[in-house]
Specification:
The termini are far apart. A hairpin with a 5-residue loop joins strand 5 and strand 6 (about 155-160). The protein is elongated. The chain has three domains: about 1-195, no CATH class; about 200-300, Immunoglobulins (Immunoglobulin-like); about 305-405, Immunoglobulin-like. The protein contains four helices and 28 strands. The longest helix has about 45 residues, at about 405-445. It is an alpha+beta fold. About 30% of the residues are buried. Keywords: Cell membrane, Disulfide bond, Endoplasmic reticulum, Golgi apparatus, Immunity, Immunoglobulin domain, Membrane, Microsome, Repeat, Signal, Transmembrane, Transmembrane helix. It is a single-pass type I membrane protein. Its main location: membrane. This is Tapasin-related protein.
């Protein structure tokens, strides 16, 4: 068993044991632990902003040293990383990263990802500075780490710089041509990180959205700019920009956190009164005096449908119409259900659908019609609508009278119609009978 697998197994056993032995909540305290991540090292190219799509990928291990994590007692007896247990025949490149210069607010999520059944993706690649450093500093190398946790987990990007182990006569790491410590690790320090709490968000049309973007940087760095951009269907646009104390909103109503929160590392964006134009991929890009990193957040806009069920034709055969209006996105499922008195509900086929309609706001509407068969006892018909914006399906029901009641109603309508026609016919007959008599009286008077 390799070090990472054994470490995770011990952690998960500790967590499950704590859950069994401590039924009541324990006061959580901060504890510094080593957070170990299985990663891939991308050997070609410098990918500063996203996961690499090509290049040679080698196994790597990232050890974030002594990261403060809230502990409820489950980490008692948990040991830190020991490189001596790694299989020498299949030893990955091990990066030992100090986090003394920055904060890692999502460390608990990184630590417990395996135990919570979530998948974690981690890639490490070379980071190339945009501004050349002094010759004494250029001996260092820089790497960027991109970590993503599935199922609504956070995304973290970190820039780390190698430390000067070569001056101590240490051996060199053959794959990277960099000095490594006596323990066989490439020692680095994380100097900059950008994170978001979740990579995908769903908001209702017309509501307000807050897109989280946080960062932390070494004290030697200065914040230069914050930029939010929106990408949608191949086109991009600037939403908000902040540079050296001046903010500018390109989207009406868009705001960042107050200045003091921004300087403290909170660059979250607020968007009021969401419309469908706000849907897309948002990029939060943080630029410091030396580094630049970003996070990507997918914002999905949803609108819940409204339904109205009506009986369009009461005579035989009766026709039901279910109007579904104002929904977004496009996919919607309309199901008809029939239930007789004392019987079990059953799904009904044979419904017809109108053409799709789209409003000026971009929401969709559609109608479904069904010819009902109430039978001798009558039946209740339900129009059920399922949509991604709904926690539960929407339902609208109506009772369709049995054939006997419909036939009686039809006969009453028919009798009333015949009676009215008879009255109209008699009125016409009387008018025709009185017309010649009126003409004779007129002629006699002349």
């Amino acid at each position: 068993m390799d070090t990472k697998a054994g470490w995770c197994l011990l952690l998960c056993l500790a967590l499950s044991g704590a859950a069994r032995t401590e039924p009541q909540a324990t006061e959580r305290q901060w504890r510094a632990v080593d957070v170990i991540l299985d990663c891939f090292l991308v050997m070609e190219g410098g990918h500063q902003r996203a996961f690499a799509s090509s290049g040679n990928r080698e196994k790597a291990l990232l050890v974030l040293k002594q990261v403060p994590v809230l502990d409820d007692g489950s980490l008692e007896g948990f040991t830190d990383f020991q490189n001596g247990a790694v299989d020498k025949d299949d030893q990955p490149v091990i990066f030992e990263a100090s986090v003394d210069l920055v904060q890692i607010p999502q460390a608990e999520d990184l630590l417990h990802a395996d135990c919570n059944g979530k998948e974690m993706t981690c890639e490490i690649s070379r980071y190339f500075l945009q501004v050349r450093q002094e010759a004494t500093v250029e001996k260092a190398a820089w790497f960027i780490i991109n970590v993503q946790i599935s199922k609504g987990g956070p995304s973290v990007s970190m820039v780390m710089k190698t430390l000067g182990d070569g001056e101590n006569g240490a051996v060199w790491q053959p794959m990277l041509n960099l000095p490594q410590s006596l323990q066989g690790t490439v020692r680095t320090a994380v100097e900059f990180q950008v994170t978001t709490l979740t990579q995908s968000l769903n908001f209702l049309l017309g509501s307000s959205a807050s897109l989280h973007c946080g960062f932390s940087m070494a004290p030697s760095l200065d914040l230069i700019s914050v930029e939010w951009r929106l990408q949608y269907k191949g086109s991009g646009q600037l939403v908000y920009s902040w540079m050296t104390g001046q903010g500018q909103a390109k989207r009406q109503g868009a705001t960042l956190k107050p200045e003091e929160l921004l300087m403290a590392g909170d660059a979250s964006l607020t968007l009021p009164s969401l419309s469908l134009k706000d849907e897309g991929t948002y990029i939060c890009q943080i630029t410091t005096s030396q580094y630049q990193a970003q996070q990507i957040i997918q914002l999905n806009i949803q609108a819940s449908p409204k339904i109205r069920l009506s009986l369009a034709n009461e005579v035989l055969p009766p026709t039901l119409i279910c109007n579904v209006a104002g929904y977004y996105p496009l996919d919607v499922v309309v199901t008809w259900i029939r239930e007789e008195l004392g019987g079990a509900p059953a799904e009904v086929s044979g419904a017809f659908f109108s053409s799709l309609r789209q409003s000026m706001a971009g929401t969709y509407s559609i109608s479904s019609s069904l010819m009902a068969e109430p039978g001798p006892e009558g039946a209740t018909y339900t129009c059920q609508v399922t949509h991604i914006s709904l926690e539960e399906p929407l339902k609208a029901s109506t009772r369709v009278a049995p054939h006997t009641e419909q036939r009686m109603a039809f006969e009453v309508i028919l009798a009333s119609s015949l009676f009215l026609l008879a009255l109209l016919f008699l009125g016409l007959q009387r008018q025709q009978a009185s017309s010649p008599k009126s003409a004779k009286i007129l002629k006699h008077s002349e």
